[in-house]
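Researcher: I'd like a candidate sequence for this fold, 237 residues long. If you have to choose between options at a position, lean toward the conservative one.
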């Protein structure tokens, strides 16, 4: 059993840094028992699989946030390649559709240690008018719920969603469906470019399983203190 399985940290620190050196500057101070890490497109494009493997070897549970959206075969192969890096969670775009999500699921079923597979439903940067322009009918919440149900019916483990959506998704998708929420801001922190935010405690109470938090930690005067305060707020030490 790994250290993160024993302690089950609910906080995922978004490593939104431009290079490996700056990311490791923070990671050197972090404990895998206190947080998980998210590597997204910027850091992955700059620092690649080598950094992901380094972080995994240090015992961190890693969410590789590359939001795959391509033809089913390509996504399936990308999922297998991601699994080989030893990450804890990966994701796809639900808008890639049923066949693509099932191909991802089947590819991971062949892996010895498959990561959790989640889907992005509607990007939180998109509003009703952006969906209408794409010819997608319904309010953002309706579209999110529709895509979450589709992801669940394809056997995915959960979705990434806004904290405003967790309560309804928890009701619709049940207790075992994993809800990962960015857009979290402790009461004392600035909002940055996030518009619809929730505090860590409110997000957990609304049904989130994991909180993705970037700048309130990475840009805090003391990132470690900021992380510990959030863990205390959500009832983890
Ligand atoms: O700094 P902040 O806490 O806003 O970082 C949130 C992280 O979650 C960023 O890495 C951002 O790309 C990611 N994210 C998000 N909204 C989504 C999906 C991912 O903010 N819908």
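Model: Candidate sequence:
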């Amino acid at each position: 059993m790994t250290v993160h399985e024993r302690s089950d940290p609910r906080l995922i620190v978004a490593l939104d840094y431009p290079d490996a050196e700056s990311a490791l500057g923070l990671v050197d101070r972090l404990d895998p028992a206190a947080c998980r890490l998210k590597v997204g497109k910027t850091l992955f494009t700059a620092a690649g699989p080598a950094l992901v493997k380094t972080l995994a070897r240090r015992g961190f549970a890693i969410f590789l946030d590359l939001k795959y959206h391509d033809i089913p075969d390509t996504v399936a192969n990308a999922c297998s390649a991601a699994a080989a890096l030893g990450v804890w969670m990966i994701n796809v775009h639900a808008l890639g559709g049923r066949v693509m999500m099932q191909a991802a699921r089947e590819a991971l079923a062949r892996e010895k240690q498959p990561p959790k597979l989640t889907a992005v439903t509607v990007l939180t940067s998109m509003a009703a008018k952006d969906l209408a322009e794409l010819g997608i009918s319904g309010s953002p919440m309706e579209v999110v719920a529709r895509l979450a149900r589709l992801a669940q019916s394809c056997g995915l483990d959960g979705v990434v969603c806004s904290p405003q959506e967790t309560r309804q998704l928890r009701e619709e998708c049940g207790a075992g469906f994993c809800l990962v929420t960015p857009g979290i801001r402790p009461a004392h922190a600035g909002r940055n470019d996030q518009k619809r935010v929730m505090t860590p405690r409110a997000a957990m109470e609304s049904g989130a399983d994991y909180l993705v938090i970037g700048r309130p930690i990475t840009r805090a005067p003391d990132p470690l203190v900021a992380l510990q305060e959030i863990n205390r707020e959500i009832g983890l030490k």
